[in-house]
Design goal:
Largest sheet of chain B: 6 strands, mixed
Structural class of chain B: mainly beta
Number of strands of chain B: 11
Structural class of chain A: mainly beta
Radius of gyration of chain B: 14 Å
Helix content of chain A: under 10%
Order of helices and strands of chain B: EEEEEEEEEEE
Shape of chain A: globular
Radius of gyration of chain A: 13 Å
Number of strands of chain A: 11
Number of helices of chain A: 0
Distance between the termini of chain B: 38 Å
Oligomer: heterodimer
C-alpha cells in the first residue's frame, strides 16, 4: 500500500463533457504530482504541487486542464470539454516530508472519452 | 525529445536466470534514477533507486548499476521469477527548482519470465 488513493478508478465519458479526478495522499506527502500515461508509453509529467502551491505545469496541460490542491492535502484534476485524445491513465504520485525523494504512485484513473 | 530511452520493448527470460533491463538518458542534469514495475490497470510500483553519487545499489534480488560517463543504467534481477513479469519503467529526475522531483520516464520494457 503506497498510501496514495485515487478516485474513480475508471471513468467513461462522452466527448465535450467535464470530468474530475481526485487523489488522496497521506499527510506525510507534501509533494504531489500528476502524470498521464497513454498506451505503449511511459508516464508523462503534467503538474506538481508542493503543499498547496502549484509550482509547475507541463505544456501538455492545455487550458482545458486545471489542478488544485486546497490546504495541501487531496488534489483534484479537472478536464473540461473532454476530447478523445484525453483518453489515458491519469496517475497521481506523492513524496516528501521524511519519506525522501521516491515518488509513490496511486492506482490511477483510467479515462475513456467516447 | 526522448530524454530517457528504453530501447528494448520486450525481454523474455527463463525462471531462475538473470534479467537485465537497460536504460539510456541524454540529460546530464539528471542526478536521481528510479525503476518502477507496472502491472496492467495499476499504478507503477517503486522497485529501487540510485543517486548519481553511486554506481551501484542493491536490494534483495534487484541491483541497479549506473554508468554516468555512458549515461546508462541497468536493472538486474537475479533470480528471475514468474511474478516478475510486468512492464518495467526507468525514470530520472534533475535537482532543484520548481521542477523538484519531476520524473521523466522511458517507454518501458515488457519482461516475461517463463516457468
Amino acid at each position: 500500500d503506497t498510501g496514495v488513493s485515487q478516485d474513480p478508478r475508471h471513468k467513461i465519458t462522452k466527448r465535450g463533457q467535464n470530468v474530475t479526478f481526485r487523489c488522496d495522499p497521506i499527510s506525510e506527502h507534501n509533494r504531489l504530482y500528476w502524470y498521464r500515461q497513454t498506451l505503449g508509453q511511459g508516464p508523462e509529467f503534467l503538474t506538481y504541487f508542493q503543499n498547496e502551491a502549484q509550482l509547475e505545469k507541463s505544456r501538455l496541460l492545455s487550458d482545458r486542464f486545471s489542478a488544485e490542491r486546497p490546504k495541501g492535502s487531496f488534489s483534484t484534476l479537472e478536464i473540461q470539454r473532454t476530447e478523445q485524445g484525453d483518453s489515458a491513465m491519469y496517475l497521481c504520485a506523492a513524496s516528501g516530508r521524511g519519506l525522501g525523494e521516491t515518488q509513490y504512485f496511486g492506482p490511477g484513473t483510467r479515462l475513456l472519452v467516447l | 525529445d526522448q530524454q530517457v530511452k528504453q530501447n528494448s520493448p520486450s525481454l523474455s527470460v527463463q525462471e531462475g536466470r538473470i534479467s537485465i533491463l537497460n536504460c539510456d538518458y541524454t540529460n546530464s542534469m539528471f542526478d536521481y534514477f528510479l525503476w518502477y514495475k507496472k502491472y496492467p490497470a495499476e499504478g507503477p510500483t517503486f522497485l529501487i533507486s540510485i543517486s548519481s553519487i553511486k554506481d551501484k545499489n542493491e536490494d534483495g534480488r534487484f541491483t541497479v548499476f549506473l554508468n554516468k560517463s555512458a549515461k546508462h543504467l541497468s536493472l538486474h534481477i537475479v533470480p528471475s521469477q514468474p511474478g516478475d513479469s510486468a512492464v518495467y519503467f526507468c525514470a530520472a529526475s534533475a535537482p532543484g527548482g520548481t521542477s523538484y522531483g519531476k520524473l521523466t520516464f522511458g517507454q518501458g520494457t515488457i519482461l516475461t519470465v517463463h516457468p
